[in-house]
Amino acid sequence: MVARVIPVDPFDLVVVGATGDLAQRKIFPALCRRLADGQMPPQARIIGAARSDMDASAFRAMVASALTADHLDPPIPAPDRNAFLDQLDYVAVDARSQAGWNDLAARLRPDVTRAFYFSVAPSLFGALAERVSAHDLATPETRIVVEKPLGHDLETARALNTTLARHFSEAQIYRIDHYLGKETVQNLMAVRFANILFEPLWNARFVDHVQITVAETMGVGGRAAYYDQTGAMRDMVQNHLMQLLCLIAMEPPHIFEPDAVRDEKLKVIRALDPVAPGDVVRGQYRAGPAGQSYADEVENPDSGTESYVALKVGISNWRWKGTPFYLRTGKRLAARSSEIAVTFHDPPHSIFGEAAEWRENVLVIRLQPNEGMTLRVMIKEPGPGGMRLKDVALDMSFAKALGDDMHIPDAYERLIMDVIRGNQTLFMRGDEVEAAWAWTDPVIAGWTAQGTAPLPYPAGSDGPEAAARLLQRDGRQWREIR
Ligand code: NAP
């Protein structure tokens, strides 16, 4: 199956931080694929910007090597790469000085959509916003894109929102959470709100519990300094897992438009119960067959930062009161796997008596690897000899369902095109980010007050033992990480 492509209008996109990791690894390959698919028009221009002094041809050479990097699957064909490089320009600017800004202003076209991707450390967001407005580079339709971390806590998130709001309206600010750009995550909304099948069952009466897992095999690696100041709760739960939880738990918006969707997500965050200290497990990996220990990777060997966190979360509203949401995320776990599993209650009465070995119906939405969905249902075991039941998986891999040659776009491909189109549905609003911090801060304050250290778990395992007990005490168990 070939994806339907709706081309966007010509645009100027300034990527500030163009020489950095995010730009080289994600943003430019994503844009190149959009050009190759015919979505990005040949009249679009990408202007790289950073302090490094180089000319446009040196910058093109830098991006050319990023477009042939091994992680790009499938590789980008040479003609597509060359066509993309032709659309690149570069200007040296410094967010903290006047240098380069007049030069940048001279390159921007007045009559096309304009966007600035702030692909720099968040400490520069304010200075950049300042420069863009001081040099009159922003029209009322100009968009800016920023990405996590959007604050370190509620106070800093508010300060960041205030700084951005001084120069841009909320409608101009695109806060990326790349999880929202994943096809499966959007499919979650399609499955819930485009089918009659699930929605009547989507509540505490029928759903026993929900598990949201984001497991990584990598350690902190090159992000050690940043990560050790941040930890799994701030780095993953406050944003990515929170967004997944919102999409699972929210009420149907009355229309699929940005504020209607974001209003419903915000209501979920506001309905989250405070998390009791006994409902949180923090962990930190120790050396194991899968790698060295956290303490060896960060500067402070006595670090008390968690590389793993598991929580039991309640939602106080009519739909979900009584259904626990169990969230867990961590580094150096057994497999790289992200999924949401919705486990339904058993039927109220078995007409099959002893012959049935009950397994709950579970709807699993896989984000990675192999994006797709599985629904576990009970069926009759084939053959004569009575009514024996067994559970089987109705398995839908999107790659298979849509054709093996279908390229599932990277989240950034989708999200950057949404910025150009002016569609904020998959971007976080400022009040959402603040509400998520307002819920997160007391969880962190709770364990800080207790002064407990994260529990050890071997690199390559499923996490600390105590996380397993968090569910066992409720008569449940985590799904295996694989
Ligand atoms: P990075 O590799 O350190 O790149 C930073 C970029 O900013 C470089 O291009 C740097 O180039 C430029 N820069 C630094 N100071 C500047 C200044 N005063 N004026 C103009 N440009 C300046 O960082 P990154 O990993 O790409 O991350 C960028 C942002 O995305 C950060 O907010 C990060 O938290 C976020 N993010 C990154 C990832 C990822 O996978 N990398 C994932 C999620 C979020 P010069 O030195 O040439 O100026």
CATH superfamily of the largest domain: Dihydrodipicolinate Reductase, domain 2
Structurally, the number of domains stands at 2
Which stretches are low in confidence, meaning pLDDT under 50 for 5 or more residues running?
A: none
CA-based gyration radius: 24 Å
Helix/strand/pairing category: alpha/beta
Summarize model confidence as the mean pLDDT.
94
Figure out the total of helices.
15
Bound molecules: NADP nicotinamide-adenine-dinucleotide phosphate
Strands in their spatial order, largest beta sheet? 14-13-12-11-7-10-9-8-16
Please summarize the sheet with the most strands.
Answer: 9 strands, mixed
- The CATH topology label of the largest domain is Dihydrodipicolinate Reductase, domain 2
Overall shape: it is: globular
Report the span from N to C terminus: 29 Å
* Assigned CATH architecture of the largest domain: 2-Layer Sandwich
Helicity level: 25-40%
Instruction: Let me know the number of strands.
Output: 16
CATH class of the largest domain: Alpha Beta
Residue fraction in strands: 15-25%
